[in-house]
Write a structure and sequence with these properties.
The structure is a single chain. The protein is of the alpha+beta class. It has 2 domains: about 100 residues, no CATH class; about 100 residues, no CATH class. About 45% of the residues lie in helices and about 20% in strands. It has 6 helices and 10 strands. A 4-stranded antiparallel beta sheet has the order 1-10-3-4. The longest helix has about 40 residues.
C-alpha cells in the first residue's frame, strides 16, 4: 500500500466519501496517519538508518541531532571505516569503573562509544587524528529513528506489517475527536496489540537481518 491507499482505507472505514467528505477533511486524515506514523516508529523502533561523518581531533562529544537527517532515537552500532572494526558500546559508569575519574582526558585510538544527555554521542578515547596509523576520521553510525512524515500519495509503505496499525491509529484519533470515547478506546487497544506484533517482528526477523549484515561486514 502507499500513502494514498491508507487514506482511502481510512475514509472507507469511517464511511466518508474521499472526494467529498461530509465531516473529515483530507488534510485531517493525513495528519492522523502521520501521527500514527511517528508513534509507531517510537513505539516499535522499526525505522533504521545510517549516517557517516568525520570525527574531530581531540573532540569527545558529537550531537546526533546535528548529524542524522531524521530524528534519532538510539544508536545501534558504529563502524570505523578505516580499521573496519565495530566500536564497543559502553557507558559513562563503565568507563569510570574500568578507567579512572579523568577518563575524558584520555586520547588515542577511539574504540568505544556511549550516549550522554540529549542524544550526545561520545567516543573514547577521544580521537588524536595526527596518529594516522591508529585512527580514522570517518565513522558510520547505524541508528534507530523517526522517519520523515508521509508526504506524496504515491509513497509506498516500506513494510506491510506497518499498514494495519497505521490505519487503526488514524481511526482511533478521528473517532476520539468525534467524541466516540468507547469506540476510540477499543481502537486504541487494537492499535497497541498491532504495534506489539510489529515490535516483535522488528526484534525478530528484521533485526536479525541487520545483525547478519553487520557480521558479514566484520568478517
Amino acid at each position: 500500500m502507499n500513502f494514498g491507499d491508507l487514506q482511502s482505507e481510512v475514509f472507507l472505514r469511517i464511511e466518508e466519501s474521499e472526494s467529498s467528505p461530509d465531516y473529515w477533511a483530507l488534510s485531517e486524515v493525513k495528519q492522523a496517519l502521520n501521527e500514527g506514523w511517528e508513534d509507531l516508529a517510537r513505539r516499535t523502533k522499526w525505522f533504521k538508518s545510517s549516517v557517516m561523518f568525520a570525527l574531530q581531533d581531540e573532540v569527545t562529544y558529537y550531537s546526533l541531532l546535528d548529524h542524522c537527517p531524521e530524528e534519532p532515537i538510539c544508536v545501534d552500532a558504529i563502524w570505523d571505516l578505516s580499521t573496519e572494526r565495530w566500536f564497543n558500546h559502553t557507558s559513562v559508569k563503565d568507563l569510570e569503573v574500568s578507567s579512572y575519574y579523568r577518563w575524558e582526558a584520555i586520547g588515542g585510538s577511539s574504540i568505544n562509544y556511549f550516549i550522554r544527555g540529549a542524544l550526545q554521542l561520545g567516543v573514547h578515547p577521544y580521537p588524536i587524528l595526527s596518529d594516522s596509523a591508529h585512527n580514522s576520521d570517518m565513522i558510520k553510525v547505524y541508528y534507530t529513528g523517526i522517519p520523515f512524515p508521509l508526504g506524496p500519495d504515491d509513497y509506498s509503505i516500506p513494510f506491510r506489517e506497518l499498514e494495519l496499525p497505521l490505519i487503526t491509529y488514524a481511526l482511533y484519533d478521528l473517532k476520539g475527536q468525534e467524541g466516540e470515547d468507547t469506540f476510540a478506546l477499543q481502537l486504541w487497544a487494537e492499535y497497541i496489540e498491532e504495534a506489539n506484533k510489529v515490535r516483535s517482528w522488528v526484534r525478530g526477523h528484521y533485526t536479525r537481518g541487520i545483525e547478519r549484515r553487520h557480521r558479514a561486514l566484520d568478517e
